[in-house]
Fold this sequence. Notes:
Layout: H1 14-20, H2 23-26, H3 30-46, H4 52-71, H5 83-95, H6 108-144, E1 149-154, E2 157-163, H7 164-189, E3 191-192, H8 208-214, E4 219-220, H9 224-229, H10 232-258, E5 266-268, H11 286-309, H12 320-346, E6 348-350, H13 352-359, H14 366-374, H15 380-396, H16 406-412, H17 420-423, H18 426-432, H19 441-457
Helix pairs in contact: 3-4, 3-6, 3-8, 4-5, 6-7, 6-12, 6-19, 7-10, 7-19, 10-11, 10-12, 11-12, 14-15
Amino acid sequence: xxxxxxxxxxxxxxxxxxxxxxxxxxxxxxxxxxxxxxxxxxxxxxxxxxxxxxxxxxxxxxxxxxxxxxxxxxxxxxxxxxxxxxxxxxxxxxxxxxxxxxxxxxxxxxxxxxxxxxxxxxxxxxxxxxxxxxxxxxxxxxxxxxxxxxxxxxxxxxxxxxxxxxxxxxxxxxxxxxxxxxxxxxxxxxxxxxxxxxxxxxxxxxxxxxxxxxxxxxxxxxxxxxxxxxxxxxxxxxxxxxxxxxxxxxxxxxxxxxxxxxxxxxxxxxxxxxxxxxxxxxxxxxxxxxxxxxxxxxxxxxxxxxxxxxxxxxxxxxxxxxxxxxxxxxxxxxxxxxxxxxxxxxxxxxxxxxxxxxxxxxxxxxxxxxxxxxxxxxxxxxxxxxxxxxxxxxxxxxxxxxxxxxxxxxxxxxxxxxxxxxxxxxxxxxxxxxxxxxxxxxxxxxxxxxxxxxxxxx
Length: 458
């Protein structure tokens, strides 16, 4: 029987029951539903709204129900309307009329809002931990590759010399922002709606701050009407998930490119690749390709949530039920994606010779040659044109800047001297990028330490 069944309302049709039921998604929340009910029962007894003996009996029975579900002794009835109904009916079946006192001063509207907040908060803690693990792995790899030279690209064209460490730390910066977004979403999630009741509060002398503290929430709601309908925290969470998945997708796309034969910069472990059914030589980086695609699911869920919420009036509306599945699916996909990506990148090795060889071509040290002239008083735009002419000469002669003769340099500008070769050396080019956040190994060391400091503070 539905919690709202009465002589005023006839039973719904079977097809409507199935359409209305949210038990599949709700089943994930049985532990937090019981946690919230225990806090509410303790508060009712503490405030004298129900007897202390009755409150303790309810709490003991709820804990046993949770233990039985945990152990598999009690199976959640998939025909129940939702998890709240299932647990309350099980409670009443075990302790009789005392169980019916639990819902005093509480509406399912506030109960649903609380359960989603509790569940989301706990899952965000896991996501924060998993993002920490990824960042730790990337910083460790960066520390081992401070001098692993590779090309840096703009527009996917060779641009300037960087290191694999500097490249990895660019993603660390992204994931640190993601961790901060998760923390901010968690803070906005941890607002207790208990006490809002259906929409207008309750006449009983409840203690909202007590229940919030019992649940580990630092804040309580400001407006009861808003408290039962607020799903901003869910939007914030899926937005944070979407942004992280953008970064995972970008990184995965780079792994697909850099592990190709044309680049050969990275070797991905066989554990994260598959072969072809017809071409024996194929090694497909399926994990990275799937990660790119999984991100689209999260983006779609975010848009769907906005679309559901955009026309809703204050207070609870059944439309809100649909946001729950979108939120939970987004959390599940992101959590699995983080686990897979961290494991994959841990077993992905840089091919240092290929990286350095690629950096030796494409005139990645051209800006260094221009800067050489600038330091001798040439305006940068003039220096730029001079080096551009030098590159044209090198291309015609099938040379690099390193293999041009000093006479060819002097023909372009008499200011060039033999020390130009030391300036355009790849290692020198790298160490010269010594500004804050730059690619020089010492600056990357600073980035690694700063990242570790930020991680410990988040």
